[in-house]
Amino acid sequence: METTLSCTNFVTLLIFLCATFYKLDSTLAAAAARAGVNPVSKIATEFIRTSCSQTTYPRLCFSSLSIHALKIQTSPQLLAGTALNVTLSSAKATTAMMSRLSLSHGLKPREVSAMKDCVEELSETVDELRRSIGEMSKLKGHNADFKLMINDIQTWVSAALTDENTCSDGFQGKTLNGNLKTVVRGRIVNVAQLTSNALALINRYALIRG
């Protein structure tokens, strides 16, 4: 009788403990959800923050990439690839904006010329970034041609940065009026800074892979 009672008490205690731990775990999970805490996301976010601290524009780097933390996780390759995709999106949007502005009424001939030259430079940037993204997607596992492929990517992204700087230089002086110049140069500088950060992350990935 005592043995039966003891077993019954033990089973009851075990059920009680399991229920308690389950409730505690559920409570903690709910609290984490309410607080917006995701352990995986937190680790990935810190990885991005640390990686971005080694770029020329760390704040822009972190703000543009941290929203992709769950996708990037702690992969240097995914971080560099995502940086390229973010840069490409910005370059395409800026190119489209510049194309529309170049058709605006009231622009002076030299302003139209500067805008069209910049659109051409940015179009080359878009092509170079697309090639870089395509090559980056092929870097899987222990690719025997890694160094050759990463060198191509670095060359294309460097060329894109040069094109952006050339575009920005075209708006020095009095080529454009004040307001238009501020808007245009601001967008171009943003693309150039994103490109610079992407190149830094690519270089870091190349060092890690060796």
UniProtKB/TrEMBL annotation:
Q: Gene3D superfamilies annotated for this entry?
A: Invertase/pectin methylesterase inhibitor family protein (1.20.140.40)
Q: Where is the Pectinesterase inhibitor domain?
A: 43-201
Superkingdom classification of source: Eukaryota
What GO molecular functions are on record for this protein? pectinesterase inhibitor activity
- Signal peptide location: 1-29
> Per its UniProt record, what CDD domains does this chain match?
PMEI-like_3
User: Which residue windows are coiled coil?
Assistant: 112-139
Write down the InterPro entries for this protein, in alphabetical order: Invertase/methylesterase_inhib, Pectinesterase_inhib_dom, PME_Inhibitor
Keywords of the record, alphabetical order, are: Coiled coil, Signal
- Read off the SUPFAM superfamilies from this record: Plant invertase/pectin methylesterase inhibitor
Q: Which family does it belong to?
A: Belongs to the PMEI family.
PANTHER family (UniProt xref) = PECTINESTERASE INHIBITOR-LIKE, PLANT INVERTASE_PECTIN METHYLESTERASE INHIBITOR SUPERFAMILY PROTEIN
Q: What is this protein called?
A: Pectinesterase inhibitor domain-containing protein
At the highest ranks, the source species' classification is:
Eukaryota, Viridiplantae, Streptophyta, Embryophyta, Tracheophyta
